[in-house]
Amino acid sequence: MADNLLELAPEFWLALGQTFTMVGISVGAAFLFGTPLGVLLFLTDRGQILERITLHRAINYLVNTVRSLPFVILLVAIIPLTRLIVGTTIGPIAASVPLSLAAIPFFARLVEQSLRELPKGVIEAAVAMGASPVQLVWKVLLNEARGSIVSALTVTSISLLSYSAMAGTVGGGGIGDLAIRFGYYRFQTEVMAATVVLLILLVQLIQFAGNRIAQRLDKK
Q1: Is residue 160 within 8 Å of 176, Cβ to Cβ?
Q2: Contact at 8 Å (CB) between 29 and 100?
Q3: Looking at the domain 2-219, which fold is it?
């Protein structure tokens, strides 16, 4: 059993690198596009400084629609879009497209919730002092909610790690692909067990790092 795992060590390193590629790209997309989307959801709601109820409802509906789709269905449904963007539907880069599409509304909703947890007095004080919408976002909202947003990014990263394993079963590569090819098709249960342990360790590491960063930001 141990010898078999040692022989597959290069495969494990390759799968780990592919998983990091998928998760890294999709987490980056979630942060880059999900943060402003979450801020917009918050600011356009009733009673906020950019109140636009129609716009808020439209964005809210779009976010809920994408979040309601099971990832496997989303993965298959946007195959034409994936092929259009990266030129293929196979490999970690291709799998990053549906992963990113799933991550953006998920993280946006968490950002919105983080902003809603801020004391109303902080926002009202900033507005009373004449803060512009841009200043309110950068100097108040995102600054005050930074620890909570990091925690939200941690949750998103862990969810994407599990999604990436699922993407691997349909040609995305990564740890999921390794588990299917060797653990399932070849009945090598030790490989399946090793991939499960590896995923658990990665989740623990991401959660630990996210908690430490969030705690440090909250103390500043």
Answers
A1: no
A2: yes
A3: MetI-like fold (1.10.3720)
SS3 220: coil
Give Cβ neighbours of residue 179 (< 8 Å, ≥ 6 apart): 165, 168, 191, 192, 195, 196
Rounded Cα distance, 82 and 100, in Å? 11
The C-alpha angle 9, 15, 20, rounded to 5 degrees, equals 125
pLDDT tens for 134-151 read 888 888 888 889 999 999
Q: Domain ranges in the chain?
A: 2-219
Is this structure's pTM higher than 0.70?
yes
Whole-number Å distance between alpha carbons of 216 and 210: 10
Among residues 151, 157, 140, 158, the alpha carbon closest in space to that of 113 is found at 151
